[in-house]
Here is the input.
Amino acid sequence: EMKELVYEEDIAELEKDSFRPFLEKYFAGITHSLDRELLVKQLQERTGVNLNEHKGADLDRLLSSTSVEIFPVQLPTKDTGFNSVSVYCDDKGIAKNL
Here is the structure.
């Protein structure tokens, strides 16, 4: 699923960027269709760790954490009026069927 989100707050300093936490909260809220088995499989492939041996609160915490990947599509240059476009992807997008 691709969705355009408009963020009304201006970010003057990257150290005070509130957009990324906004997106992490947004993506964390989309868990209604999370395929836990697929997510565990993906994590095992990335880490090389057999997660079937780890159960309980630690695994639940790991599976519920959210990370956002950022991909620049248009860089802010003079030709673009210093506007930029980025794509933000949920690290669990496939497991959430996004």
User: Anything to note?
Assistant: The chain has a mean pLDDT of 76. The longest strand covers residues 68-74. Strands lie at 68-74, 85-90.
